[in-house]
Each structure stands twice: as C-alpha cells, then as structure tokens.
Amino acid sequence: MAAIVFTAVLAAQLGIPLSRLGADDQAQRFGWQMFSGSRGFPQFIVVTATGEKEIKAGDFLLRSRVEIDVVSALPPHLCAVIEGAVTVTWDKGSYRC
Amino acid sequence: MAAEISSRPLGLTRTVVGSACVIRSVLAWPILLGLTDSEVVKIPYADWLPAPSTPLVTLIAAIWLLSALLFTLGWRVPVVGPILFAAIAATLALDQQTYDNHVYLMAWLVLLLTVADAGAGLSMRGKDRAVVRWPVLLLMIQLSVVYAFSAITKFNELFLSGSTLAAVLRNGVIPFPDSLRVLPLLSAVAGVVIFVELFIALMIWRPTFRPAAFVLGLGLHASITLLMASTAQLLVFSLEMLALYPLFLHPDPLLLTGPADPAWRRKIHRLDLLRVVRLEGVGDELVLNHHGRTTLAASAHTRIAEHLVPWLWFAPLLRIPGISHIHRRWHRSGGRPRLPADEIQVQ
User: Fold this and answer.
1) Searching chain B, which residue's CA lies closest to the CA of residue A72?
2) Which residue of A has its CA nearest to B158?
3) Chain B residues touching residue A13 (CB < 8 angstroms)
4) Is residue A50, in this structure, part of any structural domain at all?
5) Do B21 and B75 fall into the same domain?
6) Taking Cα atoms as reference points, which of A46, A66, A47, A65 lies closest to residue A56?
7) Rounded to a whole number, what is the distance in Å from the CA of A86 to chain B's nearest CA?
8) By Cβ atoms counted within 10 A, which residue in A78, B51, B129, B287 is the most buried?
9) Nearest C-alpha in B relative to A10
C-alpha cells in the first residue's frame, strides 16, 4: 500500500508540472513557474453610445497575475458593470455586449 | 520504504510550515474579501462552484487560521491537517485569481506532512515516536521539484535577458539600486539565479555539497524576500522552502566531547531540538565525531551549529572562505561567537 501511495504521489509531483511545461507562451498554474516571465495586459476600450472609455484591466481584477486569461474573462464583465457599454475592444479583438 | 526515522526534523518542518500557514491565513482574508467586490471580475474554475460571499470567505479564512495554529503546535495533526488542507484547497478553488504558487505549495506540504504523521515529533503531546521514511522522502522530493521546475521555466529569452528581473526587483524592503538596473548585469544575475535553483535541487541530496546548498538557499530566499514586492507572501514562500532543509540533515548522532560545565550542556540540550547531539566525553578541546568523520575545534563548532535550531539555517555560512578564517581565529583566541553553540568554549 505504501509503495502504491508513494508512486502515485511521486507521479503527481512530477507529472503535473511536466504537463504544464511549454503548453503555450502564457504562464501556467501548478507548474512552479515563478517570476519566469512577465506579461502586460492589453489596453481595453469600452465603447458606449456617448463615446469611448479606456480601461485599466487591473482595476477590475482581484490581482494582476500573469496566468489570468483576461481577454476571455474581462470583456463580458466590463459589459456588465459599465453602464451603456456596447462593445469592448482591445488590440487583437473585440467583444459585443 | 518502511524504514523508521526520528520524527524531530519532521516536527520542525511542521512547525515552520504551520507558522507560514498562520501568516498566510491572515493575508488571505483581505484578498478573499476583494472577490466580493462587484467591480471585480469573478473567474471561477466551474460554474457550479459557490460564488464568493463575505460569510463564505470569512469562514474559510477563520478555519484556515485556527487549523494552522493547531497544526503548528502539533495538536491532533491527523484531524487538523486535512481541515487545514481543505481550507487552503477551498481558497485555491474559489477563483482563478486566488492562485499563488506558494499557496499551492502550502497545500502540498500540509498534505504530505499529514500523511507523514508530522505530529509525532515536537508536538504538544511531548513524547516523540518514530515515523516511516517514505512520506518524508516525498517532502524532500517536493523541494527539488519546486526548485528544478522554477529553474527550467526560467530558460526563456525574457528572463535570460534580465528584463523580468528589471521588472520584479522593485518595491522591496531594500530598494534595488537603479544604477544596477542594467540589462547586461541583470542578465548575468538571471543566469546565477537559474544556476542556484538547479544547484539546490540536485546538490542538497549530496552530503558534500549540502552546506553549499543551504548557503545558496538562504541567500536566494533572503534576496527575493527583501528585494521584491509582496514581501509578506515571499516570506511565506521562503519559510515553506527553508522548512524542508532540516529533512536533509544526516540522521547520524553527533558524538561530542566538550567542557564539563553543566550550564553549557543544558544550553546544548535546549538548542538540540532535533536530538542528535550526544555529549559523551569531557575535555578541553571540542571533538566531534559525526557520520564517521572526526572534526576539532572551530570545524566541530560549525558542524554542531549546523544541527542546532535555529542555527542550522545560518551555520553553513561559517564554511565560506573568509568567514571561516575569521571564525577559526575567533575560536582559537577563546572568543565567544554569537552562535549559542559556541558557548562551547574551552574552559
């Protein structure tokens, strides 16, 4: 039993970070990537009926961690919390509210 | 696999990791409360997970704090350990933004310490009992895994250029001089950081290189904690990693000949939390026999200090050329170094 538990834990200790290596250029959770890179967040612009508003991503995040996929998470949230938002745009795309 | 070893080093690791858990639980509460702010985006791992609310995050932080205190004291670790693990896991699961490598590491360490029966030594129960070695081996492997993957993932153009260090070496307790914030220099530092992490990961297993690994580890953790922002969280990470170092000390007893002074012997016993020093003979000269090797005077003093708490984390510094020379001269002159173990003086 001890041998099975030992082997299983060892496999997880090595296998989890190995599986996170080189998945893409974005930092990965559970991979012991510590200060191995830095990445800025894109500049988001919220378009409303009355004009445009530049958004700092950090103002709407709990913490500015590099693992967070802000492009997927933030635009729908900005649509929800910014009154009159019609579209959210950034350098590589846009999101219609 | 089933070999039994002393539970004292494991108990020391549990105490330090538990203390890190206490500190982090206090830091966790305001972070988790931030998730209840309607302006802050929620990024759950799954839709069915409960939404963060003030009562929920307060409950998690409170359980975390209480169980961490009891875990540190070694009170019913088989019960408290899983509760502490659950509180940390709940924090990690609550939202993708609550992830931190040091919190993830904390979950691993609490889990492994619980499996290893870390309450068997240095606990409120008072009486120690032996533990099986294989879970302790997993804790030691965890140290190497963290350092090794941390180093491997730094092999990228951005880090090697020094740009990452230029960005993160700011807002620390000790300000990093702007005059040194130049890429060629930081690029060299980046190479040193990778070398140090790989060296510790591999060489801490080799008795010959272990003191060097301890010195480099102390330097690495002191520098990241003091030079980078998020000091408290980096302190927690450093405590977690340094807590594992005593597990690598050789378990053979240190057979010591020294002064007959009862006060000196009591002090040695008080600092010998790992219970590895055997005061055998009486003599004017310090003579230490450890792991088949005999050392004298200042060298013996260094080796003893490398097994006393808390000096074991700092004493390997006495092996550094220069410091070692000063230490030897000091010892010969009958001086009293600040290390309590050098209350081992010739009478």
Assistant:
1) B43
2) A37
3) 108, 138, 141-142, 145
4) yes
5) yes
6) A46
7) 18
8) A78
9) B138
Taken in order A2, A8, B247, B127, the sign of the CA dihedral is negative
Residue-by-residue DSSP string for B277-295 = EEEEEE-SS-EEEETTEEE
Instruction: Give me the domain span that covers residue B71.
Output: 1-132
Q: How many domains does chain A have?
A: 2
- B97/A62 touch (CB, cutoff 8 Å), yes or no: yes
Residues of chain B contacting A71 with CB distance shorter than 8 Å: none
State the ipTM, two decimals. Answer: 0.92
Chain B residue with minimum CA distance to A17: B149
Q: Are residues B209 and B85 in the same domain?
A: no
Do B156 and B120 sit in the same domain of this protein? no
Indicate which of A14, A21, A24, A32 best probes the interface with B, i.e. most B CBs within 10 Å of its own CB.
Answer: A32
How far apart CA B232 and CA A32 sit, in angstroms, is 19
**B233, B248, B263 - which closes a domain:** B248
Task: Tell me the three state secondary structure of residue B102.
Answer: helix
* Shared-domain flag, residues A52 and A91: yes
- Report how far apart the first and last C-alpha atoms of chain B are (Å, whole number): 46
Per-residue pLDDT of chain B (347 residues; tens, 9 = 90+): 789 999 999 999 999 999 999 999 999 999 999 999 999 999 999 999 999 999 999 999 999 999 999 999 999 999 999 999 999 999 999 999 999 999 999 999 999 999 999 999 999 877 899 999 999 999 999 999 999 999 999 999 999 999 999 999 999 999 999 999 999 999 999 999 999 999 999 999 999 999 999 999 999 999 999 999 989 999 999 999 999 999 999 999 999 998 888 888 898 999 999 999 999 889 888 899 998 899 999 999 999 999 999 999 999 999 999 999 999 999 888 764 444 444 444 33
- Based on the domain organization, do A11 and A49 belong to the same domain? no
- Domain membership flag for residue A66: yes
Please report which helix (H) or strand (E) contains residue A67, including its range. Answer: none
Q: Is A39 within the bounds of a domain?
A: no
CB contact under 8 Å between A13 and B142, yes or no, is yes
Closest Cα in chain B, distance from residue A1 (Å) = 11
| A82 shares a domain with A49 | yes
Do A38 and B163 make contact, defined as CB atoms within 8 angstroms? yes
How far apart CA B200 and CA B215 sit, in angstroms, is 10
**Residue B275: which region, alpha, beta or left (left: phi > 0; alpha: psi -120 to 50)?**
left
Q: Is residue A58 part of a domain?
A: yes
Best B43, B138, B156 member to test A by mutation, with max A CBs in 10 Å, is B43
Same domain, B269 and B220: no
The total number of structural domains in chain B stands at 3
At A26 the pLDDT is 63
Q: How many CB atoms lie within 10 A of CB A43?
A: 12
